[in-house]
Amino acid sequence: MERQELTDKIINLVAERFELDPATLNGQTDLTVDIDADSIDFVELLLEMEDEFDAEISDENAEKLHTIDNIVDFILAHQN
């Protein structure tokens, strides 16, 4: 999957989960600051991404995934 296609899919997942307009999100969007996702929301989103993109995200790695770009980079590097 190409980077832009993956970015668009993740933006759409985030927008859907948090009821946001996808046009307001970009690679620099910080899920913990810009959209105020609590830890439960964040874990649920990561679980959904694991299923969607066939990539296992450990708790240790999840702590580093704050922006959409961080998530894209991780998935591109760790897809099964």
From TrEMBL:
The subcellular location is: Cytoplasm
PTM remark:
4'-phosphopantetheine is transferred from CoA to a specific serine of apo-ACP by AcpS. This modification is essential for activity because fatty acids are bound in thioester linkage to the sulfhydryl of the prosthetic group.
Q: Which GO terms describe its molecular function?
A: acyl binding; acyl carrier activity
Instruction: Name the principal localization, coarsely classed.
Output: cytoplasm
* Start and end residues of each Carrier domain: 1-79
InterPro entries, sorted: ACP, ACP-like_sf, PP-bd_ACP
Keywords linked to the UniProt accession: Cytoplasm, Fatty acid biosynthesis, Fatty acid metabolism, Lipid biosynthesis, Lipid metabolism, Phosphopantetheine, Phosphoprotein
Q: Which GO terms describe its biological process?
A: lipid A biosynthetic process
Q: Which residues carry this modification: O-(pantetheine 4'-phosphoryl)serine?
A: 39
* Keyword Ribosomal protein listed: no
Pathways per UniProt: Lipid metabolism; fatty acid biosynthesis
Record flagged with keyword Cytoplasm: yes
| One GO term describing the cellular component | membrane
Role this protein plays: Carrier of the growing fatty acid chain in fatty acid biosynthesis.
PANTHER family per record: ACYL CARRIER PROTEIN (PTHR20863), CARRIER DOMAIN-CONTAINING PROTEIN (PTHR20863:SF76)
Which family is annotated? Belongs to the acyl carrier protein (ACP) family.
Return the protein name: Acyl carrier protein
Kindly list the organism's lineage: Bacteria, Bacillati, Bacillota, Bacilli, Lactobacillales
Name the gene: acpP
